[in-house]
Structure formats: C-alpha cells, structure tokens
Amino acid sequence: MPDPRIARLPLSTGELLALDRRHVWHPYGPMPGRQEPLVVESASGVRLRLAEPAYGRRELVDGMSSWWSAVHGYNHPVLNEAVRGQLERMSHVMFGGLTHEPAVRLAKQLVDLSPAGLEHVFLADSGSVSVEVAVKMCLQYWRSRGRPEKRRLMTWRGGYHGDTWQPMSVCDPDGGMHHLWAGSLPRQVFAPRPPDGFEEPVDEAYAREVRELVARHADELAAVVVEPVVQGAGGMRFHSPGYLKVLREACDASGVLLVLDEIATGFGRTGRMFAAEHADVAPDVLCVGKALTGGYLTMAAALCTSRVAEGISEGEVPVLAHGPTFMGNPLAAAVAGASLDVLLGQDWAAEVGRIESGLRAGLEPARQLPGVRDVRVLGAIGVVELDHEVDVAAATRAAVGRGVWLRPFRDTVYTMPPYVTGDEDVASIAGAVVAAASAG
Ligand SMILES: *Cc1c(COP(=O)(O)O)cnc(C)c1O
C-alpha cells in the first residue's frame, strides 16, 4: 500500500525522522535506529543547515568534511558547474568498450599528481572497492608470475581499509569494528601497531621486527597493505614516515608488493599531496578516494605501476577481472577532475598549514582536561585522544551546542575540516572539540 505521506512532499521533520528510524540503515547503526540523526536541509561553504534547530543551532560549521571528503566545502560554484555541464552531456555510459573525456582526463591528472611510477588507473566506485581491486591486482600479479601461493597480505595493527571482505581482513583485528568476523575473514599477517609520533625517530627494534616478519612470510605474501603516516578510522594515530621506508625496503628485499591506502590522507590532508611524500616512498599500488571528488559523488581509484600491470597482462588470464557497472561514472569523474583543478589552482599547502596552526593553538587547552591522554595535529587533522571510550551523545551535544558538527568515535574526538574553513571557524571547531572532549 502506498503511504499517503510519501505522495505529499515535503515531509515534515517529524515524519521524516519516524520513517528514517523505521526503514533506513545508517552507518554502523542498529535497526531500528536508537540515536536520532539531525536532518540536514542544505549545505553551503563550510556550513550545514538543519531542518530544525538542534540545541539552539540551525547552522553548524562542519568539522568533519563529510567523512574527510568535502575538502572545498559545499555548494562550490566550480564543482556545481562541472556536474551541471556533464549532466547535460551524459550522466553515465558503460565503461566496457566505451570511454569518455572526464575519465581519461581524471586518470591523467592522477598519474601526474601521484608518486612516480604509478602509470595505470582503475576507477572504482568506493574506497573499499578500490582496496579490493588493489588486492586483486597484487594476487593476480603473483599468480601470473607463476607464484599463486603468494596470496596473503601483511599489515600493521591499528589500520582501517574499508568494510568489504578483503579490506576488513587487514583492518585492526582487535579494537576495530571487524573483530566479529575474525573466523570468516582471510587470515592475514599482522605486525604490531607502528610506534606513535610523526616526529619520533624510527624505533630500530620495531623496524627489525617488521623486516623479519616480511622476510619470514615472503613466500606466501602478495603484498603489504598500510595507511601511510596516519591511521584514520582505526584510531587517528600518526607515525613516523620512516616506517614507510622500512616497509618499502623490506618489500623490495623479499619480493612483496607495497600497497599504500591514501583514501584518507590523499590530496593534501597531511600537508603533502600524498602522505607517502613525507617519506619519499612510492608504492606499487596506491588507493585514493574520499576527497577525490571533493565530496560530491562516490568514486575512488587504484593506481598501479607498469610492472604490476604488465605482470597481470602476461598471465594465463591476461586481464584484470574486475568491472563495476558504474565504473568511470562521467558525473563523478567530471567533478573529481574539477576538484583537482580547484585544489591545484590555489596554494593548498598554505591553507592546510594555516588550519594546522589554528588547530594547534585551539586544541592546546585540551591538554589540561582530566581524561585526556593525547592531543595531536598534523596538517588539517586535529585529534584529542581520551583515556576512555567517548560518550558520543554527550560529546555531540556539546559540539552542536557550540554550532559545530563533529562525529567522535572510540576514544577520540577529532576534526578534519574543509580546507576552505576560515580562521574564525577553525577556532570555533577547535573550541568545540575541546568542549566535546570535556563533555564526552
Ligand atoms: C574510508 C576509508 C576506506 C573506505 O572507503 P569507502 O569509500 O568508505 O569504502 C578505506 N581506507 C581508508 C584509509 C579510509 O579512510
């Protein structure tokens, strides 16, 4: 039976929330939902406009960039125009046997921007799928080279690589969301979590342990898969770029491929275009996503070297057997290309540096709070780590009451603001992070 409320638009906020709770899954949520989401009516610049005030606020400064993707803010004229222009030409065509300018242009932009040696681009529809494709590339490379037994992965603990099956198998096996699946996932090789601290020197004992682990498992390892410099959804931790050099050398010495997952760190977030640049390391396969489209549409990519591509193409199945229906979607590719133009058309490193300074100053008071274990900032990432699980409801209330949108998780309250966030808004966000850490 059609619901009469659905024929009549708009829905009231109350109706919308009732239907949402009854029918709509939210990320990592129960069904029916227990926490009431805020209804967003529109978004512009760095502000989300709510359908109804929450804790006295109708507009919220976005401290999350919509899960780290909306780096240029919302309703951006150049990005809007890119989507509109492409929409008038075609919103989608299949990518098998056909191609188009937005995808070709984007691929070339990514090759030019990414670390040296990455020459070939597979466009995927989400970050998790790009990691699946990266893993498939590595396994198939070794299969083609007559080494099918090289099909395990190695990573370090504390990581996050997505929610589909292969990515889950290299997520942190303990603290993360995926320990539930321990018995069902491929069993990968785990090194301990990299020692904390971006500025810290490389811990030689740890480096030796990692080298030994790669060497010991070399015969069964297809690849090492890690997030460079920043472990994001696994706990917002920073480590020395030196460990990427350790991994690169260990992989080269033992004949193992290196996959860097820059889905969170890519496109300037850590102060360099890619976090791997802090170490001057180039991977065999690179995953990008999140900020790729400026937060407009879902798209990610796996880039690989000619060695990997040729290896696959010389095998008994000389093709990469992967092809999503919406691969290379023209709307997403067009807005991604425009987003990279906008990024490169400004002194983005100066903007990220400006936000970094603002966050450093604004988060400093959190060090004095009881229950705060650490305060850390790198590029446009600011983190307050507590010594206990955050009370998400209390923390969110404190932030929203100050006019800021944050989404804390586990033991952290953090922000990854859009690069266009002005100094006053950065200060508001930092103040809200401190207030949320205090309340939560
Ligand atoms: C978000 C994220 C993913 C997963 O991307 P989705 O687009 O959510 O599938 C993978 N790796 C890292 C490092 C991420 O931050």
Automatic annotation (TrEMBL):
Record site feature (Participates in the substrate recognition with KAPA and in a stacking interaction with the adenine ring of SAM), residues: Y28
Protein location: Cytoplasm
CDD domains: OAT_like (cd00610)
One Pfam family from the record: Aminotran_3
Molecular functions (GO terms): adenosylmethionine-8-amino-7-oxononanoate transaminase activity; pyridoxal phosphate binding
Cofactor(s) demanded: pyridoxal 5'-phosphate
Pathway: Cofactor biosynthesis; biotin biosynthesis; 7,8-diaminononanoate from 8-amino-7-oxononanoate (SAM route): step 1/1
Annotated residues for binding of pyridoxal 5'-phosphate: G127, S128, D261, P324, T325
Cytoplasm is among the record's keywords: yes
SUPFAM superfamilies listed in its UniProt record: PLP-dependent transferases (SSF53383)
Gene Ontology CC: cytoplasm
N6-(pyridoxal phosphate)lysine modified-residue sites: K290
BP-aspect Gene Ontology terms: biotin biosynthetic process
Reaction(s) the record says it catalyses: (8S)-8-amino-7-oxononanoate + S-adenosyl-L-methionine = S-adenosyl-4-methylsulfanyl-2-oxobutanoate + (7R,8S)-7,8-diammoniononanoate
UniProt-listed Enzyme Commission number(s): 2.6.1.62
Functional summary from the UniProt entry: Catalyzes the transfer of the alpha-amino group from S-adenosyl-L-methionine (SAM) to 7-keto-8-aminopelargonic acid (KAPA) to form 7,8-diaminopelargonic acid (DAPA). It is the only aminotransferase known to utilize SAM as an amino donor.
Designated name of the protein: Adenosylmethionine-8-amino-7-oxononanoate aminotransferase
